[in-house]
Amino acid sequence: MRVDFSAIEARLRRFLPPVLEERQKKDLNRVQSYIVQFTEYSFAGTQTGDVLQEAVSSRGKMVRPQLVLMAGRFGTSSDIIMERLYKVAALVEMTHLASLIHDDIVDDGTLRRGRSSIQHQYGKSAAVFAGDFLMSRITYYLMREGFNKSGMVLAKAVEAMCTGEITQALCKYKMDLTIEAYLQNIYGKTAALFRAACHIGAIESGCTPEVRMNLEKLGETLGYMFQMRDDLLDFSPDNRIIGKSSHQDFREGIYTLPVLYACETNEGKKCLHPYMERNATSGLTEKELQEMEQHVMTFGGMEKTWQTIHAYQEQAEYILTTLPDRNAIAPLMQLVRKLGSL
């Protein structure tokens, strides 16, 4: 199955940023205002200050704070609750920003979201200081604002994120990596914070235990979809779209779902394992990477990944039918269907 990347890129541009209702735009502006407030610093003009300015101003899709706010619509609504949701959504996004800085340092990458990565632009020391500063502010404001239960949920998500990065590092260049191990890794890398975002929104708005559990599962499902979609886009030839060089994961020995599915057959293993062996020793040329991509497509890796994403999409759409009929259903359904397409 040959994927038409021109169609992918056209559709992805419509996804970035998401089409939001006017209320969502206003809500996210409030979240952003709290991010700016919570990250105020006294060392402007330093490299660390520049890192923080870059991180805070490079506003991405803000999917995680969207999930906090949308999950919060299934509970009690009041001005006080909304302000708490704005604040905690800001802290969730700050956690994500800190993790991006951390990823830049660990990956030693040169690109992030199509731009020069923070550590590449400002140096590792400034990036480490900025990441530490963000985490200290997150801890402070969680305590100051009394987010006790939400703080515990967020802390466990950060623990899972660290575990996911550690286990992924241990799996680098493993040709016998199982799909189960891959799923465990991406739960920590991505799905855990998506799940926590929904959980926190449910906690702060006082959702019933049943609704909270369904929202947690929805967040986890969306996280899996998000990461699998990102892994599929690693095969895109346009790094302006994916924000990094194509096949960057494969180059680094991170074998994602399209590759693992293609290796399920003996023929696929026979074709792909030599590339994986050379990748671990001397690296691959651009020509060899293109050949590898063709084998992944030939042996159904990309098609089966899409089938898996669509299976998660069906699960997410079913979960939405179990939730109370609130005005958050429509934007959540929109997000589900955007993640289920390119």
UniProtKB/TrEMBL annotation:
Cofactor dependence is on: Mg(2+)
Record GO terms (molecular function): metal ion binding; prenyltransferase activity
Which UniProt key words apply to this protein? Magnesium, Metal-binding, Transferase
Keyword Cell cycle belongs to the record: no
Swiss-Prot/TrEMBL GO biological process terms: isoprenoid biosynthetic process
So which residues are the signal peptide here? none
Matching InterPro entries: Isoprenoid_synthase_dom_sf, Polyprenyl_synt, Polyprenyl_synt_CS
User: Which parts pass through the membrane?
Assistant: none
The cross-references to PANTHER family, in alphabetical order and at most eight, read:
ALL TRANS-POLYPRENYL-DIPHOSPHATE SYNTHASE PDSS1 (PTHR12001:SF69), GERANYLGERANYL PYROPHOSPHATE SYNTHASE (PTHR12001)
Q: Which family does it belong to?
A: Belongs to the FPP/GGPP synthase family.
Name recorded for this polypeptide: Octaprenyl pyrophosphate synthetase family protein
